[in-house]
# Entry
Amino acid sequence: MTVRMSLLGLSGGLMLAALGMTFLYAPTDAVLGISQRIFYVHVPLALVGFLAFAVVAVCSIGYLWKGSERMDNVAYAAAEIGVLFTSLMLITGMLWAKPAWGVWWSLSPQLTTSLILWFLYVAYLMLRAYAPPGETAARYAAVLGIIGFIDVPIVYMAARWWRDLHPNKVLGPLAEESALEPSMQITFLVSILAFTALFAWLLAERTELRRQETQLERMRYTYGQA
Amino acid sequence: MARHKAILIAALLLALPALGAEGEEYLPFLFAAFAVTWVAFFAYAFFITRKQADLKQEIETLRAMQGEDDDA
Amino acid sequence: MDERRAHPGASWWSAVLAVLWKDLLLESRTREIVTPIVVFSLLVIVIFSFVLDPNPRMVEAVAPGALWVAFTFAGMLGLNRTFALEKERGGMEGLLLSPVGRDALYAGKMLGAFLFMLLVEAIMLPAFSVVFNLPLLEPGLWLTIGLATFGFATVGAAFSAMAVNTRAREILLPVLFFPVAAPVIIAAAEATRAIYAGDAFADYGNWIGLIAAFDVIFAVVAAATFEFIVSE
# Structure
């Protein structure tokens, strides 16, 4: 309980700091203008979303290795939060792209990879929902968690070559990005830390909820048997 | 490519004056991005914590019922 | 099982071939996979010929995509049937009780799915080439199809073994399969585009390499994790 409370406090404090720095400390980008500030949520969402899927893969291996239910609970929670973060990353990315590129969407390598990643972990959650409950769903999901994560670099490579063959009409300014100003770097760093702390807190809470869910399922079953 | 350059130059021109007059038309996008993110976070956190409380209650009820059955 | 693990080789391959032979024999008697899928696939090609403008520039632009859409949909139907008979007739218990390692079981089922898909594609490709007036005798194209289909079979057989035990299995299999197989579909369509445009192997060799890497990686990963899918 205290661990989760302190994580909440930490993420809350860091989030406020990140928000303040985003609007008051970081300078307006000379090239990209005011909407560049979207990056202070967009980039951390992308990084932490990816971190969440890495957690899914590690816990999936751990689950298949040791068979500990806790590992499975963490994997489930991380997948759900990863889908949330990735969804928000796609939405904030589109909100940045519309004014900057003039389109909501383009098939750049990052976008293609993110979209496929999103579908992959939505499929992961669907598999868990439709598989026979209990241990079977956990095993199936662990296998998908491993296969999916190994697939990510291959998807990225395919998307990259693909774009190279079909030059986009709306190449992002991000492609010719130069070194960031120090104040921007610090703001990015604080934002990333804040989102990581928020992820840790949500992960702890969602894992606890998942534990309760499985416990309740088991109790209902044994009560039904009695 | 030409369009992209035009947008870049336009953004550059707009960014020249300090924060305020510049990029007014982008503000709704900036606002929307932050609003969507924060609403989603709060909604998710609210959903998790409320469901935790619900399930805790249900587990205790079930436990009590099982206890009664064992006594009988 | 441990004893078999210690002596891979001849006995391992004979187990794989036994599983594969079982599937081929069953298919030759029931004809529940290849025949209906071939008819379905020919219909897909006919529908493409209806909806796509047959002028050569249009064909050049959309034919590679159309070919791989047709192949993936046909492959999906075949993969859906990979474990369907085991499920319907309780054959899975028999397979699990038989003295065959899980990885050999996977390899046999995967090769069976691969051969069925390849057979269907061997009939679809000439039909497609005739309808859209495209070259057929292209070894590069055959190589692409062979490697990509193998890639489909590696992850497809593993997902098929899962999906068969789920609710909504017919729809869940493509939902699981397409995101993971996306790089193979992209790479195969791009290689096909280069081949139809008459490019040299050097121009599309990197796509072939990507598909081959996918094949090797997922054949190993799926074989290693298959015991967790079928341990009931």
About this structure: Chain B touches chain A at residues 1, 3-4, 7-8, 11-12, 14-15, 18-19, 22-23, 25-27, 29-30, 32-34, 36-37, 40-41, 44-45, 48-49, 51-52, 55-56, 58-59, 62-63, 65-66, 69 (CB under 8 Å). Chain B is about 80% helix and 0% strand. The CA atoms of residues 7 and 64 of chain B lie 67 Å apart. The longest helix of chain B spans residues 27-71.
